[in-house]
Amino acid sequence: MRFDVVTIFPRMVEAAVADGILGRAIDRGVMEVRVHDLRDFTSDRHRVVDDVPFGGGPGMVLKAEPLFRATEEIERQAGRPSAVILPSPQGRRFVHQEALRLSRLTHIVVLCGRYEGVDERVREHLATEEISIGDYVLSGGELAALVIVDAVARLVPGTVGDAASVRDESFAKGLLDWPHYTRPARFRDMAVPPVLLSGHHAEIEKWRRRQAVRRTFERRPDLLALASLDEQEREILRELLKEQEKGAKHERN
Ligand code: ADE
Questions:
Q1: Is the beta carbon of 23 within 6 A of some atom in ligand 1?
Q2: 97 domain-assigned
Q3: Distance 87 CA to ligand 1 centre (A)
Q4: Does the predicted TM-score (pTM) go above 0.90?
């Protein structure tokens, strides 16, 4: 899978994709991430990428032309991309299902915005989708682009060494993760739950699922409505609801 990221801070993006799981996937040829300096697609001597907003007001707006030219050049080299993403706080919220959808595409262009905004014609006639990574405003699209590239890449087969760890991890099911421990079994009087040392695989599996359901129930009950729970997990949830009811009754009395 190929990403092309267009930015005025290429070093920032290059540094972030060079290490870790993503860096290894790139080295192995499973992923390709090309970074383009937006200034290379300007046509003036000063390589200007922004200008004042029509109608007045503070701040600068990223010009349409360099972004169009960059995307056209990428298209000329590599064919029409499957998606042209504009990260923006006005976009659709980036969640696991979105990452999964994008991980099935072969070629994605990401256009990083900066300054007060991006010329609206980019949004209307160049980007095929606008994605927000959360309800806050970043100073530019680079960090959002990196979040998208990272989350999508780890869902591409062959990127993460142990496919089971991606398949089983929390959001794949719509649940939060269960607790993890490693050696030593006792650290400064803090012990690992005995079941994890028991060697009893069925019991360990049951404990983990219970923890995942409990955490989701306590911390992110909104996720449960969309989670794909099996019968065992639904039973755990019923028990938790009963416990909660009992607690509420106890408080009332
Ligand atoms: N650019 C600035 N803020 C952003 C956000 N929250 N998500 C995606 N892109 C952004």
A1: no
A2: yes
A3: 6
A4: yes
Cα(59) to ligand 1 centroid in Å equals 17
The number of C-alpha atoms within 13 Å of 170 and in the hemisphere containing its C-beta is: 16
pLDDT of residue 167 exceeding 70, the answer is: no
234 φ/ψ angles, rounded to the nearest 5 degrees: -65, -35
Give residue 133 CA to ligand 1 midpoint distance, Å: 6
What CATH number is given to the structural domain containing 194?
Answer: 1.10.1270.20
Atom of ligand 1 nearest to the CA of 139: 2
Ligand 1: atom nearest CA of 134 is 6
Distance 116 CA to ligand 1 centre (A): 12
Q: What are phi and psi of 155, to 5 degrees?
A: -95, -5
Mark whether 56 and 138 lie in a shared domain. yes
Asked if residue 110 has pLDDT above 80, the reply is: yes
Ligand 1 mutation target, pool 62, 88, 131, most atoms within 8 A of CB: 88
User: Which secondary structure element, helix H or strand E, spans residue 246, and what is its range?
Assistant: helix 231-252
The answer to whether 123 and 130 are in contact (CB under 8 A) is: yes
